[in-house]
Amino acid sequence: MATLVIGDDHQVFADALGTVLGQQGFTVLDIELTLGGTIAAVAALRPDLCLIDRHFADGEGTRAVARLRTAGEATKVIVLTADQDPAGMVLAMAAGAVGYVHKTRGLAALVYAITRAYSGDIVVALPADPGPRSRRDTDAVRLASFLTTRERQCLALLAEGLGTAAMARRLNISATTVRTHVQAVLNKLGVHSRLEAASLAVRHALVEGVIVG
User: Fold this and answer.
1) Distance between CA 101 and CA 123 in Å, rounded?
2) Which residues contact 198 (CB under 8 A, 6 or more apart)?
């Protein structure tokens, strides 16, 4: 089973999580309450995976993903957070995280994410659907309905945090064609940046069920 380092500034939660994951068969090598301590632990212990919260008093977890991957070399990073901002998922995945799990999804979703990430997959578990769509949700879905199949695929890859070159490889098209599709996505959704488009897609579940590749 995978070896883990946990980084979370809420000690009660972190300790409880370490205990529960140990009972699930994972080996928890260390639990740290600061971002700096988490990075140091990853560098010293080289775990298979690091579970890290987004917000610490000494830094931003999603912005430290690259540092964690460098510190651990082969260590994979899963962001585990209670943050409702979908932009965090985009930032984390773009930086190289292999998972983004919302704390409200529960233990089963986290264990699944760890297991799949350890096997080489990328896993995202966002907050469960809160219920009926609001008018803003409906407007987003209406705008997304004007996207072509290829544009929807590009939007899905933006939501994964991929850049132009990576999108071109996944879709087997040129970088110029990717840029054209992405610009069309921005225009149709009425947003000004790739991050805004990705956040909109995640927030309103615009790319669920989209097949890429």
Assistant:
1) 8
2) 86, 87, 90, 155, 158, 159, 161
Nearest Cα to Cα of residue 158 among 125, 121, 207: 207
Alpha-carbon dihedral angle through residues 163, 38, 35, 88, given to the nearest 10 degrees:
30
Judgement on whether residues 113 and 140 belong to the same structural domain of the protein: no
CATH number at residue 111: 3.40.50.2300
Structure confidence at residue 209 (pLDDT):
66
Mean pLDDT in residue range 36-51: 95
CB of 4 within 8 A of CB of 47? yes
Question: How many domains would you assign to the chain?
Answer: 2
Separation of alpha carbons 198 and 186, rounded Å: 10
Q: Which two tokens stand for residue 59?
A: 């830094």
Residue ending a domain, among 125, 152, 187, is 125
Q: Hunting for tokens 């190289």 — which residue is that?
A: 96
- pLDDT tens-digit series, residues 117-166: 999 888 888 776 555 544 556 677 788 888 898 999 999 898 888 889 98
